[in-house]
Amino acid sequence: DKEVRAIFLRLFAQLFQGYRSCLQLIRIHAEPVIHFHKAAFLGQRGLIENDFLTKVLNGMAFAGFVSERGPPFRTCDLFDELVAFEVERIKAEEGNPPKMIKHVRELAEQLLKNENPNPHIAFQKVPRPTEGSHLRVHILPFPRINEGRVQELLQEGLARSQGAPPATRGEKKCVVPAGPPVGRCI
Question: If you count Cβ atoms within 10 Å of the first and of the last residue's Cβ in the chain, which end, N or C, has fewer?
Answer without folding.
Answer: C
